[in-house]
Amino acid sequence: MQWRRGVVCVLGMLALVGGAACTSPSPTTQQPPAVAALTSDPGATASVASPPTGALRPPGTAGAPAPSPRVHLTAAGDYAANVATTGGVLRALALSGSEAHLALGDLSYGSPGGESAWCSFVTSRVGTSFPFELLSGNHESNGTNGSIDRFASCLPNRLGGAVGDYARQYYVDLPRSSPLVRVVLVSPGLTFPDGTWSYAAGSARYAWTAAAIDGARRVGIRWVVVAMHEPCLSMGRYGCSSGSDLQHLLVSERVDLVLSGHEHLYQRTKQLREGTGCARITVGSYSPACVADADTSMVAGAGTVFATVGTGGVALRQVAATDPERGYFAASSGVGTNPTYGFADLRVTPDELRFSFVRGAGGSFTDSWVLRRAPSP
Fold first, then answer.
1. Neighbours of 47 (CB within 10 A)
2. Which residue in 119, 100, 108, 106 sits closest to 37, CA to CA?
């Protein structure tokens, strides 16, 4: 099947922040089967409720029940261009069978003007047509280590149907026919040429994010994943630069999973909640009442899991074992604690979201857990 590469920015709810629609086409290329499954358009005559085709489900046998649809995503941030570490992560990614990768910011750590070379470093390892979907980090939002616009030009959106401003603030539903998951990507606390982006309560970007989450629920999308470069809760060196208001929104909305980078380590919380006994999670402290579940098998809808995956290849840092927020975390890895480079691997069906940390280089750290919800009617 032929497809057209390009960045698609549509108005959608972006009117809240003054966005505009744009399309930047380029010559067609042949999609890998897995990518085709995520991006295929059901067409004007197809039913949007029909099950997806391609690599999201194996070929059926005549007369046999159709297998459930599936989505396979990966995610990491903080890459650089180290042949051993970044290269190891990208090689493992290429072998993972992932249908799309979420790059959670802080890309090359190189000099401005080197964006195209870094894109080539990536595509030489994962393929030129693989959806390596970008979200800006602080190193490219303000131009310190290149421009997010130039990175987005050489690693454009390849999933299709994205709503918003690619690489800054957008969402995408996967697969495009009968979506299972909405991925919402936002940039709280980052400084772009037009200023620092606030997601404080009452701001337009806060409202955009809330509307994207509520919109997914309204149309019956089973899972909501939010990605942002800078976390709020952390056992690393940074504070809550993304803002406690946004964290409160995500937990109160019971978003299933929140992904981030920025901290050069891996850390994953327990399933967190707000409600009786925990009106609001307070940054810089720990309250057991804010934990919905602490094991590796959790009930979807009971709370939110936060995972920081700043393990894409740049030098790792220590996990602060005495951090006051330590009680919220279930797993971590960094310098001194089995430092391992790798990525998050998400396998989504209508009834399960399975998460695992996949090694690309370094140590032998692993982490895995699952969210389960009641079967679809």
1. 10
2. 100
Q: How far apart are the C-alpha atoms of 92 and 299, rounded to whole Å?
A: 30
Class of the domain covering 32-39+69-372: alpha beta
| pLDDT, tens digit, 9 for 90 and up, residues 173-226 | 999 889 999 999 999 999 999 999 999 999 999 999 999 999 999 999 999 999
Write down the residue that tokens 């209508």 correspond to: 350
Distance separating alpha carbons of residues 151 and 155, to the nearest angstrom: 6
Token pair in block for residue 373:
């919800």
